[in-house]
TrEMBL record:
Belongs to the HAD-like hydrolase superfamily. EYA family. This is Eyes absent homolog. Mg(2+) binds at residue 11. Binds 1 Mg(2+) ion per subunit. Its cofactor is Mg(2+). GO terms for molecular function: metal ion binding; protein tyrosine phosphatase activity.
Amino acid sequence: GRKPTYVVIGDGRDEELAAKQSWPFWRVNEHQNLTALVHALEWQFL
């Protein structure tokens, strides 16, 4: 099977701090950002 990918998703300071714990951070301010995340996951960039 495939190895899972965990990503911190958000738009605030709390999410950024969590991301500093060696978790990838994906800022989502609008729908386009979420669409880009889906594409990155589909293409296994993360």
